[in-house]
Amino acid sequence: MTPLRANQALVADKILLDGRLALFHKTERWLAVADLHFGFELSQRAAGRLVPMWGMASISQRLMELMSEYAPQRLIILGDLVHDKTAAREAARLLHDLAAHCEVVVVAGNHDRQLHGDVEMVESWETERFHFHHGHCAVETAQRIQIIGHHHPAAVITDGAGLRLKCPAFVQQSSCWIMPAFSPWASGTRWAPDETSRIWLCTAERVFRLEAAVL
C-alpha cells in the first residue's frame, strides 16, 4: 500500500482528500472538485476592476496535475464552473481539454444559470452511496451521503501570538460533505464547528484535521 503524503488524508474508506482541494475515490475512480468560478478575473475586468490574470491558469494547472496523478475515470465539477457568462468560451475550452483525459460531469450551480445551451450540465449525479449536487437547494437523497459545494467553507488557526491563518476546509458531516472552493479567489466562509462535524484544513502541502482545541 502506498503511504499517504502530507497533503492527503483518508477521510472515509477508499476516499482521499487532496490538499489541492479535490476528493478522489480509489475504487470508483471519480475525482470531485467544486466552485471553480473560472474566469472570475475576466468578469471583474469587464466591470472595470483591474485584477491580475492568474486565476484561470492556476485552476487549469491544478486540475491537470490532479488528472495526471490520479487518472480518474470521471471528473465531477460540483457547480459554479464559472463566475458568470463572461468566461463561457474559456470554460468550454477548459472542459474540452479535460474531456481528453476522462469523462467530465458538470453539475449546475447557481452561477452557471447563463451557461445553459453553451455547456452540457446536469442537476445532480449519483452513485450507490453518494449524491452529488451543488448545494444551493435542499434535496432528498434517499439515505445517500450528499457531496456538495456552494458554501466555500474555511477554517482559521492561530498561534497564540496574534498570527491567524485562514485556509479552505473540507467539512464532513454524517449525511453531507461540503467541498472547499477550488477557486483561488474564494477566501471562504469560516465554518462553525459542532459535535457532528469533522473539519479538515487544506493546503497544497498539508492536510490535517482540526481538533476542538485548535478551533
Give the SSE layout.
Elements: E1 8-12, E2 15-18, E3 22-25, E4 30-33, H1 40-46, H2 55-70, E5 74-78, H3 88-99, E6 103-107, E7 125-126, E8 130-132, E9 145-148, E10 153-158, E11 164-172, E12 176-178, E13 189-190, E14 198-202, E15 207-209
Parallel strand pairs: 4-5, 5-6, 8-9, 9-12, 10-13
Antiparallel strand pairs: 1-2, 2-3, 3-4, 7-8, 10-11, 11-12, 11-14, 14-15
Output the keywords:
3 helices; Purple Acid Phosphatase, chain A, domain 2; 215 residues; 15 strands; single chain; 9-stranded mixed sheet; globular; alpha/beta
Explained architecture:
This protein has 215 residues and is of the alpha/beta class. It has a single domain (8-135, 142-209), classed as 4-Layer Sandwich (Purple Acid Phosphatase, chain A, domain 2), CATH 3.60.21. The chain contains three helices and 15 strands. Strands 7, 8, 9, 10, 11, 12, 13, 14 and 15 form a nine-stranded mixed β-sheet that branches. Helix 3 (88-99) links the parallel strand 5 (74-78) and strand 6.
Summarize the structure.
The protein is α/β, with parallel strands linked by helices. Helix content is 16%, strand content 30%. β3 and β4 form a beta hairpin.
